[in-house]
Design a protein that fits this description.
This protein has 345 residues and is α/β, with parallel strands linked by helices. The chain is 59% helix and 9% strand. The protein starts with a helix and ends with a helix.
Length: 345
């Protein structure tokens, strides 16, 4: 069944208990994978630290469709609670999900983070229609919601964050929950905050920790990476390295563009009109960039751009490890994205 936010949060918090035990499968999908991952952690907390977790993925379920139902019906070796997490679930897992829902018994909850699924997805249709499932789509929060999320994350860690600073953090991370949590965590450590010793966040502290560099011109690199121009990407990386530009300053505009492409792609998939989808994005697409953005939307389908956003988010976290290894990991991710774009051109 299709769930709203209140329903999915309540069900995940009570997974395996009472009436919530009737739900065999939770599908978290949509372009905001960070939001889906945050929701998935609610089930993890509900099951407790001693619960046994079984990790599966799409290829495993494709090759052995019966395994999911078997795992859901099995008892933990240690007598504790048991639950199953599926990463990267797609259409190849439809037989496995069908077997799970047709099984006589399935006592262990199953949760999957699937990223952006097409409206025509048979997997999605099954999850939306079946009474023993719950499906919820996460979308990028708007500016106000992102600000509130940043403030709430800070409050949990003992940090008092003003609306203005929450808005700054949301703008820096383009509203990505995982990246916002990382920025807040840096502030918490910097100010030595904790729930039992709350601290007031300041603009000066955020300035001191921010790796953002507004003077860097990352637009050519953004277009090279997402457009599959490998030679151009290496040239721009060299230029930015000579200028001393931090990798985090490169990743944020890349994330911004990738999320824009995801939104336009979703509109395009629904309407079938690419030019109309680009126009509907309004001022988010600079008029000089319309041709470039249109070509990039053609390169990346919904699933592909969702994976790009995930990789860029992982690269942003890697960049926090400092220069050296962190930067190498970022370059590796950018190269992987550019190669994929080159193959799809």
């Amino acid at each position: 069944m299709k769930a709203n936010r209140g329903q999915i949060e309540k069900a995940l918090d009570a997974a395996g208990q009472g009436s919530a035990a009737d739900c065999r499968f939770f599908l978290l999908y949509g372009p905001d994978e960070a939001g889906s991952t945050t929701l998935a952690k609610r089930l993890e907390r509900a099951m407790g630290p001693d619960a046994e977790r079984i990790d599966l993925d799409g290829p495993t379920l494709r090759d052995d469709p019966a395994r999911l139902a078997d795992e859901a019906a099995s008892f933990s070796m240690f007598g504790d609670k048991r639950w199953i997490r599926i990463n990267g679930m797609g259409e190849e897992s439809l037989p496995a999900l069908t077997a799970l829902l047709e099984a006589e018994a399935a006592g262990n909850p199953v949760i999957a983070v699937a990223g952006a699924l097409k409206p025509t997805s048979k997997l999605l249709k099954l999850a939306l229609d079946h009474k023993q499932t719950m499906a919820f789509a996460s979308y990028q929060p708007d500016a106000r919601e992102a600000e509130q999320i940043a403030v709430a994350i800070a409050r949990e860690g003992g940090l008092r964050l003003s609306s203005d600073l929450g808005r700054r953090i949301a703008d820096l991370t383009n509203g990505d929950r995982t990246l916002m949590a990382g920025e807040v965590e840096k502030l918490i450590l910097y100010l030595d905050a904790a729930p039992d010793r709350p601290r007031e966040a300041t603009g000066e502290a955020l300035d001191a920790l921010s790796a953002d560099n507004p003077d860097s011109d990352a637009a050519p690199l953004v277009n090279a990476v997402l457009g599959g121009d490998l030679r151009g990407m290496h040239r721009e990386l060299g230029r930015l390295a000579e200028a001393g530009t931090a990798m985090a300053a490169v990743l944020r505009p890349l994330l911004t563009r990738a999320m824009l492409l995801a939104n336009i792609r979703a509109d395009f998939d629904d309407s079938g009109r690419l030019e109309g989808a680009v126009e509907a994005a309004g001022k988010a697409v600079f008029w000089k960039e319309k041709g470039v953005v249109t070509r990039q939307v053609r390169i990346w389908d919904a699933t592909g751009i969702a994976r790009v956003i995930q990789r860029l988010a992982q690269a942003e976290r890697a960049s926090r490890s400092g220069r050296g290894l962190g930067d190498l990991m970022v370059r590796h991710e950018l190269l992987a994205i550019a190669r994929q774009a080159a193959r799809e051109r």
